[in-house]
Design goal:
single chain; mainly beta; seven-stranded antiparallel beta sheet; 16 strands; globular
Length: 174
């Protein structure tokens, strides 16, 4: 166990993770959502949370740390049906930061916003072609997804079935 700015958290060793039923975060491609968590990464690669296959090109959605940047995947088929976006700037290693990702359900990258410590981040769009339903029965995982495992601490994971506003995103970490 560890203590985050939001209270108790859990340490992930790059191997272990938490898994819940498929009903948690079971959003389709046109349903809005918000994912949030406090993270203290010890590595610049890892899965923060996911409702997706456990290999990089798998179907589903998840929030990842790739080369230190926060990345969102909303994927039906990796090669041509999905959304992939990442922050332009990396997060800091070995420091607590609050990460929040919103999706408006509009099936476009323009409907995604990423916040770190309540501040909206600039993002790079890597792929923007989401036009196919993606209901599936993958489990919801904390600390795992896309073949990645998180190394460091995660706390106060939240899943909302709506897109939080900018004002709400700014106060969630407080």
């Amino acid at each position: 166990a560890t203590t985050s700015p939001a209270g108790p958290g859990r340490h992930f060793d790059g191997k272990s993770y938490l898994e819940a039923t498929a009903e948690v975060a079971d959003f389709d491609y046109n349903e809005p959502f918000t994912f949030a968590a406090w993270i203290k990464p010890d590595s610049n690669q890892g899965a923060i949370l996911s409702h997706a296959d456990d290999f990089m090109e798998g179907q589903g959605h998840g929030v990842y740390l790739i080369d230190g940047k926060i990345r969102l995947h909303v994927i039906y088929r990796w090669s041509d049906l999905g959304l992939r976006l990442e922050t332009t700037e990396p997060v800091k290693l070995h420091q607590w930061q609050h990460v929040l990702v919103t999706y408006d359900g509009g099936m476009k990258a323009s409907g995604i916003r990423i916040f770190v410590d309540g501040r909206e981040q600039k993002i790079n769009v890597l792929f923007d072609e989401l036009i196919w339903p993606m209901k599936h029965k993958r489990p919801f995982r904390i600390g795992a997804g896309a073949g990645l495992r998180f190394t460091g601490d995660i706390a106060d994971v939240r899943v909302y079935n709506r897109e939080l506003s900018t004002r709400e995103a700014a106060v969630v970490p407080l």
